[in-house]
Amino acid sequence: MLVNVTLDPDTANPHLILSADGKQVKQGDTQQNVPDTPKRFDHAGSVLGKEGFSSGKFYYEVQVKGKTVWDIGVAKESINRKGKITLAPNYGYWTISLNDGTYAALASPPVPFSLKGKPQRVGVFVDYDAGLVSFYDADCWHHIYSITNVSFTEKIYPFFSTWGNDGGSNSAPLIISPVYICPIK
Question: Are 1 and 137 spatial neighbours (Cβ–Cβ below 8 Å)?
Fold first, then answer.
C-alpha cells in the first residue's frame, strides 16, 4: 500500500524544475528547453507521478511546508494536458488545494473547507476498487477530506501542481516524503 512515488519529467510543465531523484518540484523563473509531447502539461504548473495504478490501495505523502498555493491528488491517464485545465472530477482530477489560506476540494464548483492547523505534509490515500480518495494531515494523522463514490475506469497517477512563485512567497518546492507507517488499513 505504501508506494514509492517519483515525478515524471516527461509530463512536467516546461517552467517546472524537478530534482535529480524525482522527489521535488518547484516553479522556475524561465521555461526549460524540453520537447512538447502529448504527455506534457503546457499551461498549468503541473506534473504527474511516473507510477500509475489501476487497482488496489496506495498511499503517499507530500511536504507542502512553505507553500501558499498548491494542488495535490490523483488524475486519470487520459486527462487534458494542453491549454487551460479544470481540476475537477468530471475532468479526471481528484484533488485538494491551498490557495492563499483557503483550502478546497476541487470540484465544480470547488468545495471550501477549514482546518484547525496548517498541514506541513499531506497524505493521499486511494482505494481504487472502492472509489475513494482521502487526504490527511500526515503529521497528526488528521483526516482532511474524502472524495467518495468515484468510478475509476482507467489508470490513475499522483498529481502535483506548484503554481507560480508569487514574488518568492510560494517558491518552496513540493517534496514527496518517505513514508514509514501508513495510518490507513
Answer: no
Q: Are 48 and 37 in contact (CB under 8 A)?
A: no
| pLDDT tens digit at each of 185 positions of the chain | 678 899 999 999 999 999 999 999 999 888 889 999 999 999 879 999 999 999 999 999 999 999 999 999 999 999 999 999 999 999 999 999 999 889 999 988 889 999 988 999 999 999 999 999 999 999 888 999 999 999 999 999 999 999 877 777 788 999 999 887 766 66
Dihedral angle sign, alpha carbons of residues 6, 10, 11, 16: positive
What's the 3-state SS for the chain? Answer: CECCCCECCCCCCCCEEECCCCCEEEECCCCCCCCCCCCCCCCCCEEEECCCECCCEEEEEEECCCCCEEEEEEEECCCCCCCCCCCCHHHCEEEEEEECCEEEEECCCCEEECCCCCCCEEEEEEECCCCEEEEEECCCCEEEEEECCCCCCCCEEEEEECCCCHHHCCCCCEEEECCCCCCCC
